[in-house]
Amino acid sequence: MLRCGRYTGHSFEHVAAEDTNYCEWVLRASFEGKKLPRDLRAFSRYLSNTHGGVLSVGKYKGEFYDEALRIDPGYCDWASSLEDPGPGLKSFAKYVRQQKHTAESSTTETTKSTEKTGTTRTTGTTSPSPKRRRNEPAAQTCSVCYTKPVECAFVPCGHVSCCLRCARLVDGADGRCPICRLEIAMTQRIFFSS
User: Fold this and answer.
1) At what angle do helices 38-51 and 20-31 cross, to 10 degrees?
2) How many independent structural domains does the chain possess?
3) Backbone phi, psi, residue 183, to 5°
4) Does the reported pTM lie above 0.70?
């Protein structure tokens, strides 16, 4: 809850939902080392931890980093691939690279855990994976269209259940995993070894 400034009495979530320009100002002031009241410093930490930041340039100017990543992973890939991004994209590119690294690490750990134990970790619990024959179609078929092979993992939940086309449709429609209904931060393309 903010106890000072323009949004006195409002929750951090409310302010973030209502005024990204104000959020951008708070983050910029904090980054530049300006002396801010304790509440605004806490709000800046909340924004950084929850949304990463606010884009100040480009196609998604005024959007939170996490929202731009959800809306347009291709744009984010482009931004993170820049060798020398300008000041407006530098922290965004770093955020995207960190999110990708976290997602890849999470997917790798889940895969290693599944290969070793035959169980999948989900929110701190393990449950036995169903016994399926290696070539059984249900284990490799998209859970949305039931025709194409699975090609994507949803981050952060790690569910591998959709082809690329359906994963994009699901992410664009309601942004929630069709298996566990957890909000999708990004979609990661996966490749199986033969």
Assistant:
1) 110
2) 3
3) -65, 135
4) no
